[in-house]
Amino acid sequence: MIDRLKAWYAAEREKLRPMPRRARAEYVWQYYKLWIIAAVCAVGLPVYIAVHRMTVPSDNWLYITFANTYADVGNGSALWRGFVDASGYDVKEKNVYFNNSCYFDPSDTRYNAYYTYFVAYVEAGTLDAITMGRGDLELLGRRGRLLDLSREEAGGLAEKYAGRLVYAVPDSDYGSEPVPIGIDLSDTRLVTEFRAYEGACALGVSANCPHIGAVGKFLEYVLAYGAET
After folding, report:
1. Parallel, antiparallel, or unpaired for β 95-99 and 129-133?
2. Domain ranges of the chain
3. Which single residue of 35, 91, 130, 210 could bond 65 by disulfide (Cβ 3.0 to 4.6 Å)?
4. Does the pLDDT value for residue 30 go beyond 50?
């Protein structure tokens, strides 16, 4: 195998030797461009990954999932930029992550990868909050993945937004009384300005929310031009 490669290389070198420089470059690109691209990728990809890891923050100020929407409300969107500016968070230090690529029906989550990811992010303490249609959030609240906003961990959100609370009766494993699991955002700029949802929508806080203060800042931002709370 090595001898064959040596012979091939010697033959190609002899073929290229008499060619002008430009013709030589054109020949190499025409016949070996795929190999060249592959070699560049093989070298460049590890370098890109290393630089990305060194320059992109690994921790978050806030992680919100905007579920079941096709609106442009993800990272870099007007909603994202407006919140980052209003919050004062330095995204070079930590991330503000808006995920708008998540679609699942809370009434039937079997074999749904998006729901699996949602649960994994809740359990890992990565996800801070999720927005959905209000009916969907009520269904999701039955599964015990959303924080009871009357608990101390919610940072007083139930008291602050008492007129907007969304309730659900969790599955029997979690209790039988209605608990506040969401905050209605149907008349806020999330709908009126950014068109994230067409109908009633609400925000639920992850059961293992790591940044409840940042969730509060987001609520203040989207409610800035909404109806009275």
Report:
1. unpaired
2. 2-55, 60-222
3. 130
4. yes
